[in-house]
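Quick one: structure for this chain?
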Amino acid sequence: MMQVAPPAGPDFNFLIDQIVPLIGILGIAGAVTVSIKWIMQSPVGAALAERIRYGRVRSGQQRGGGADDARLAALEDHLEALQAQVGELVERQDFTERVLAEKRGTPQLGRGQ
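Got it. Here's what it folds into:
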């Protein structure tokens, strides 16, 4: 029997079978890279960057230093002033209702009615 020499040149089927998966992997990697870049340039990416930069803030903890404490104290003072004003307005409204009820001769309303 006579032996036949192997064919000369590369086997194109073998090359295609090896290259196609590589092209697919590169395409997927490119799509993932573009998606991550798009997300990181959005407001979501900015929030993630801030979270990474400042770390996790647990409930009851503050991120900043004295500036946040001063702002919080000012807001609390303002809230207390607003609550006092609302209390005064409720008292004035009750008084006005009682005076108007007396003038009309209708039965007086109790406090808060």
